[in-house]
Structures are given as structure tokens and as C-alpha cells.
Amino acid sequence: QIQLVESGGGLVQAGVSLRLSCAASGRTLSSYAMGWFRQAPGKEREFVAAVGYSGAITKYADSVKGRFTLSRGNTKNTVDLQMNSLKPDDTAVYYCAADRGASWSPPNSPNDYAYWGQGTQVTVSS
Predict the structure, then answer these.
(1) What is the pairing mode between strands 120-125 and 10-13?
(2) Sign of torsion, CA 44 2 70 13?
(3) Which site among 9, 13, 42, 46 is 20 to 30 Å from 20 CA-CA?
(4) Alpha carbon distance 35, 30 (integer Å)
(5) What pLDDT shows up at residue 42?
(6) Residue 53 — left, alpha, or beta (φ > 0 → left; ψ -120 to 50 → alpha)?
(7) CA proximity to 48, closest of 118, 9, 106, 3
(8) Segment 74-116, tens digit of pLDDT
């Protein structure tokens, strides 16, 4: 069983940067595709970014492409999300997740992820 804990959220003004981190315990992250998702009030959970278990393939939602960068530090058992040029529309609870089993190409549906953190709030003011 893998446990995931997100950190790094906060209240910021539009245009600044935040770095979210997802720390794992129980198992090494190198065996999983990892994803970041977000959920705003009244909306469904949506895909943000994900990386395959090997790190060879990374995917981004169109809304964050060019602004967000996902990186995984397997030796530290963490997955980070660098978020630049934040916008009010980025306001949401951000979740990291591990998939069901070593996907080379990371899935972008939350249904394909088996393990979830508790989430960290990101609020971007205009």
C-alpha cells in the first residue's frame, strides 16, 4: 500500500509561482505512473499532468501546458508540480495520485488511479 501526502499549496496573487510536492511512503514511486489532478468547487476532478512510471512520457492538460512542469525525483520518492504564471482559474484543491500499475504512457482519467493524497488547496487571487 502506498501513502501520498501533498504539500506546498497556499494563497497567492495571479502571476506568481508555486511548487507542489507529493511525498510517498510505503512503496517506491518508481513503480507507478503518477498524476496531478485538481478539483474546483462545484466542478469535477480534472487532469492536470502525469508522468509514466519510467519518466519517459509526460502529459499536460492544455490549460496548463507551458506553465506547469511535473518532475519526479525517484531517489527522494517525490513528485513535484512547478506552477508558474498562476491564474485565478487555477484555484482548486490539487491531488496527486498513483496509478494501478506501471503505465508507460500515463493515463489522464482519475478512474485509472488507485491511490490518492488528501489534497492541498491552491487559491489564486486576481
Answers:
(1) parallel
(2) positive
(3) 42
(4) 13
(5) 95
(6) alpha
(7) 106
(8) 677 899 999 999 999 999 999 999 998 778 899 999 999 999 9
